[in-house]
Amino acid sequence: MKLCLATNNAHKVEELQALLGEKFQLQTLNEIGCFDDIPETADTFDGNSLQKAIYVWERFQIDCIADDSGLEVDALNGEPGVFSARYAGEHGNHAKNIEKLLQTLEGIENRAAQFRSVITLLIDGKPHFFEGIIRGKITHERHGEKGFGYDPIFVPEGYDRTFAEMTMEEKNPISHRGLAVAKMIEFLKQA
Ligand code: IMP
Question: What pLDDT sits at residue 189?
Fold first, then answer.
């Protein structure tokens, strides 16, 4: 089954394709001919993922998976949340985002946080939502080189290594996206 994954983030496609298996062939936005900068102007993960999926469906009539995810820090009332990618101002500057978060959390004891992901699966124009959450802690400094985003400063509950110190095989089954995808796969199997 062909599905557009509403992103051009190579990391995400790789992660998700590994989770989905061969039964599904993911196509990126560029592969379906979409070169637009799809708006993400909602203030929730649900809203943003739905907005992206509808954008693709309306223009390309292709079944679509769109996700939105981010880091929610307890002591910051859920920030950076939907602003995770541009927390330090510049979209996708992970190093600066990490730096800003570590500075903001300086002197704060409560390091609890979670990654949350919401997937919208739009089939024949009908939306289905799947959510995944992984709880953990923000470290005091960066550890590890793998992954992306806030991976070097997030240690999932029950582990003593950051996501950036884990292989994709370790991270995928426990990650927020992995959990949301697992729910979506369960749904697709029953469809
Ligand atoms: P997106 O909107 O799903 O692309 O995610 C927004 C931002 O959340 C990313 O740019 C990252 O900063 C952060 N993020 C989401 N998922 C992860 C993850 O698995 N590891 C690290 N950072 C993540």
Answer: 74
| Higher pLDDT among residues 26 and 143, named by residue | 143
DSSP state of 35: -
Average pLDDT, the chain: 94
- CA dist 129 and 25 (Å) reads 20
Residue 145: CB atoms within 10 Å: 9
**pLDDT tens per residue, range 29-50:** 999 999 999 999 999 999 999 9
pTM to 2 decimal places: 0.90
CB atoms within 10 A of CB 115: 24
C-alpha separations of 73 from 77, 91, 153 in Å = 6, 19, 12
Phi and psi at 65, nearest 5°, equal -115, 125
Q: What does the alpha-carbon distance between residue 4 and residue 160 come to, in Å, rounded to a whole number?
A: 35
pLDDT digits (tens, 9 = 90+) for 92-131: 999 999 999 999 999 999 999 999 999 999 999 999 999 9
What are the pocket residues of ligand 1 if the criterion is a CB atom closer than 6 Å to any ligand atom?
67-71, 84-85, 92, 97, 115, 147-151, 163, 175
Residue 68 annotated as catalytic: yes
User: Ligand 1 pocket check: which of 5, 29, 150 to mutate, most ligand atoms within 8 Å of Cβ?
Assistant: 150
Distance 1 CA to ligand 1 centre (A): 26
Complete domains list, the chain, with CATH = 2-190 (3.90.950.10)
